[in-house]
Design a protein that fits this description.
This protein is α+β, with helices and mostly antiparallel strands. The chain has three helices and eight strands. The chain has two domains: about 80 residues, GMP Synthetase, Chain A, domain 3 (2-Layer Sandwich), CATH 3.30.300.70; about 60 residues, SH3 type barrels. The protein is elongated and about 55 Å long. The protein starts with a helix and ends in an 8-residue tail after the last strand.
Length: about 160
C-alpha cells in the first residue's frame, strides 16, 4: 500500500500538498515487551503557499486519520503525527526550489551531500552556488537525480 498516494488522494482536494510521509517502528517501549508504537509522520504544506496553521494540521490529521482507519494498514497500534514543513523543509518539486531561491539548501545526489544556494531553476534542472571552498562554484543538478533536498536555513518571512 502506498501511503503517500493515499494521503495525496484525500488531502489534495482539500488544498494540501503532501511533502513526505514516513513510518518508523517504535522501539524500547514500556511494559517489558521491547516494542513501542509505530509512528506515521505526515508533513504537509498548503497548495496556495500560505502558512500552514494549527487548524490546517488538525484538519489534515482528522481526514488522513479516517483514511488510515479505512485502509487499516497495520495490525498493531500506530500514532499519526501531522506537521507543517518546519525548519528542515523537504524540497521535492521544481516549484519548491523556485519558491526558496537564494536560500541555503542541502542536497543529496549521487551519494554525496552538497550545500549551496539555489540560483536558478530551468526546465528540470536546479543550479546551486556551492558554499565552502574559496571561489564561488556552481553546479547544475537534474531534479530526478536528487535523492533528498531540504532547506538549510529558514527565510526571514514566509514564502
Amino acid at each position: 500500500m502506498d501511503l503517500h498516494e493515499a494521503a495525496r488522494d484525500v488531502l489534495t482536494p482539500l488544498g494540501y500538498e503532501v511533502l513526505e510521509i514516513s513510518v518508523s517502528s517504535g522501539r524500547g517501549g514500556s511494559g517489558g515487551k521491547g516494542q513501542g508504537t509505530r509512528r506515521v509522520l505526515l508533513r504537509i504544506d498548503r497548495l496556495d503557499e500560505e502558512v500552514v496553521s494549527v487548524q490546517d494540521v488538525a484538519r489534515a490529521a482528522g481526514v488522513f486519520g479516517l483514511e488510515l482507519d479505512r485502509l487499516d494498514p497495520y495490525p498493531d497500534a500506530y500514532r499519526l503525527e501531522v506537521e507543517s514543513p518546519g525548519a528542515e523543509r523537504p524540497l521535492v518539486t521544481l516549484r519548491h526550489f523556485e519558491r526558496f531561491a537564494d536560500l541555503l539548501i542541502k542536497v543529496r545526489t549521487g551519494g554525496e551531500t552538497l550545500t549551496g544556494r539555489v540560483r536558478s531553476v530551468q526546465d528540470d534542472r536546479i543550479t546551486l552556488e556551492l558554499v565552502g571552498g574559496g571561489d564561488a562554484t556552481t553546479t547544475t543538478i537534474a531534479l530526478d537525480a536528487i535523492e533528498r533536498a531540504r532547506l538549510a536555513e529558514w527565510p526571514d518571512s514566509p514564502r
